[in-house]
């Protein structure tokens, strides 16, 4: 039987503008008639024809609620739009970094290679019938579509009149590995279901020295804990940490992927990764007994990571700086040196200091992993990271949660290679404190005000921009609030000119820069699905080694006070406290 192609009439649906990383909305929005279809067709229409007709596309994600239905719909639309093959991870599961690896590395049973992917995830947002779903398109370099493409997709969603679908194509069993072939009007169409982990595991083994990490993990002095928060990282954790590296199964927490992430919020931070935080001896409800030496967590699609030591939190901004400082001697992939390093604008300047010391190329880009891709493709950047718990390298074009854990384990293995039999190992905390002694410390915190009224959030931002035109007025407010905070010497909205393609991205965050190097940054999140989330980033540099050991919330309290006063946070939003502090 030859499947048919139907042309379905449709109308534009409001609000399909991709955010920082794809389109994220409540499931109830996505399941409206034509909603997903319009976005997928608008994406096909935004690509050049050869990236669709005859192409191989990956369609998978973090396994959240509605993924299985979405995979069947996208497969039927792919067939109708002339795609030659669809690749699906078993059970529809592929982490975001694994998708990137699959696009870049995988060769299909018939020698084919993928030219793009629909990734089905809303990342760290909760899942389930009343929660979030998401979709984004990644390009043939394995990275998220650049703004030129996402803008085109959005424009297409505003004018769409029709989409194409092969309704009579049977649903494919995505639980079993294998190839299903179908006859279409233009020839054969295949769906290949493959093991979700093997390509990714192979890539990790080519980057890191698994033998040295195995030795570390097998040391009786070393204890380890990994929390996948019921996200897709669970599909990789057992294979890598237990089967390849010899960790105990009991060191894995919440490693069974679930459609609703067990009812939790799969966001690896000190607020939402409660069980891990308690086990690591942090927070109010610490578990009984001695915490593990090392702990880490991932988000829903496993591109984010949180790194913890025993009773110790590593800020993501410090984490990328420490990985960059230690990469060459600890990680075989980097043994020839780093091409350069990059961070997003709101991320602390800890990486800048490392780049300066090591004489490395350095780039500051807007928030959004897509901005790192061009630098990596041009051979300008090896390691990059963001304050939002994202860390990665040019091995793929997405941030990579498990990669970050393996990078930290490699650094620990390297620092401890002579003393695995000793009484005390060099710990995560030792490494961070030593780093601060060498490079100084960037005290850093982020306040998130989630689900604020969107109008109020916009007004607050507009007010902060307006205030920037009068620094004397700003400094009056600062002085009236605290005498121990230095003065604001510059204030602007961050604008980025991509050094590779010259494209310009404006309005990428409101900055207040102080004389002593401290910074306040205000941004609206681009990843929420309801209302607005205001992010306030606060940073202060301390070079004096005798002053790098303070509690960070204490050290930053004066700047926090200034930030709240400057922004009239309570006045605009009615909030007396942030939803999350990291
Ligand atoms: C995405 C992007 C990141 C960004 C993060 C937070 O991550 O890929 O580059 O830092 O969103 O963005 P925002 O501050 O706009 O919410 P993920 O893990 O959500 O895909």
UniProtKB/TrEMBL annotation:
<dbReference type="GO" id="GO:0005829">
    <property type="term" value="C:cytosol"/>
</dbReference>
<keyword id="KW-0413">Isomerase</keyword>
<dbReference type="InterPro" id="IPR005841">
    <property type="entry name" value="Alpha-D-phosphohexomutase_SF"/>
</dbReference>
<dbReference type="GO" id="GO:0006006">
    <property type="term" value="P:glucose metabolic process"/>
</dbReference>
<dbReference type="Pfam" id="PF02878">
    <property type="entry name" value="PGM_PMM_I"/>
</dbReference>
<keyword id="KW-0119">Carbohydrate metabolism</keyword>
<feature type="domain" description="Alpha-D-phosphohexomutase alpha/beta/alpha">
    <location>
        <begin position="317"/>
        <end position="417"/>
    </location>
</feature>
<dbReference type="InterPro" id="IPR005846">
    <property type="entry name" value="A-D-PHexomutase_a/b/a-III"/>
</dbReference>
<keyword id="KW-0479">Metal-binding</keyword>
<dbReference type="InterPro" id="IPR005844">
    <property type="entry name" value="A-D-PHexomutase_a/b/a-I"/>
</dbReference>
<keyword id="KW-0460">Magnesium</keyword>
<dbReference type="InterPro" id="IPR045244">
    <property type="entry name" value="PGM"/>
</dbReference>
<dbReference type="InterPro" id="IPR005845">
    <property type="entry name" value="A-D-PHexomutase_a/b/a-II"/>
</dbReference>
<dbReference type="InterPro" id="IPR016066">
    <property type="entry name" value="A-D-PHexomutase_CS"/>
</dbReference>
<comment type="similarity">
    <text>Belongs to the phosphohexose mutase family.</text>
</comment>
<feature type="domain" description="Alpha-D-phosphohexomutase alpha/beta/alpha">
    <location>
        <begin position="199"/>
        <end position="308"/>
    </location>
</feature>
<comment type="function">
    <text>Catalyzes the reversible isomerization of alpha-D-glucose 1-phosphate to alpha-D-glucose 6-phosphate. The mechanism proceeds via the intermediate compound alpha-D-glucose 1,6-bisphosphate. This enzyme participates in both the breakdown and synthesis of glucose.</text>
</comment>
<dbReference type="Pfam" id="PF02879">
    <property type="entry name" value="PGM_PMM_II"/>
</dbReference>
<protein>
    <recommendedName>
        <fullName>phosphoglucomutase (alpha-D-glucose-1,6-bisphosphate-dependent)</fullName>
        <ecNumber>5.4.2.2</ecNumber>
    </recommendedName>
</protein>
<dbReference type="InterPro" id="IPR036900">
    <property type="entry name" value="A-D-PHexomutase_C_sf"/>
</dbReference>
<dbReference type="InterPro" id="IPR016055">
    <property type="entry name" value="A-D-PHexomutase_a/b/a-I/II/III"/>
</dbReference>
<keyword id="KW-0313">Glucose metabolism</keyword>
<dbReference type="GO" id="GO:0004614">
    <property type="term" value="F:phosphoglucomutase activity"/>
</dbReference>
<dbReference type="Pfam" id="PF02880">
    <property type="entry name" value="PGM_PMM_III"/>
</dbReference>
<dbReference type="GO" id="GO:0000287">
    <property type="term" value="F:magnesium ion binding"/>
</dbReference>
<dbReference type="Pfam" id="PF24947">
    <property type="entry name" value="PGM1_C_vert_fung"/>
</dbReference>
<keyword id="KW-0597">Phosphoprotein</keyword>
<feature type="domain" description="Alpha-D-phosphohexomutase alpha/beta/alpha">
    <location>
        <begin position="16"/>
        <end position="163"/>
    </location>
</feature>
<comment type="subunit">
    <text>Monomer.</text>
</comment>
